[in-house]
Fold this sequence. Notes:
Blueprint: H1 3-18, H2 23-49, E1 52-54, E2 60-62
Helix pairs in contact: 1-2
Amino acid sequence: MEQKKIERINELSRLARQRELTAAEQTERAELRAEYLEEFRRGAEQTLANTYIQYPDGSRRKLEKKKGK
């Protein structure tokens, strides 16, 4: 995510502490937060996809995705 967008999220958060945000500002903040979370989750998934567990005997096993409910 661009640094400019992160700064805008922070700016809107500061404004929300000082006064109530307008409907347009609330919508913008929600969209920016959703975009930030999506990118964060994608990065975390990529990291975990390349993670291996190493056992004391030296063997390694790729971390598998947890099966859902």
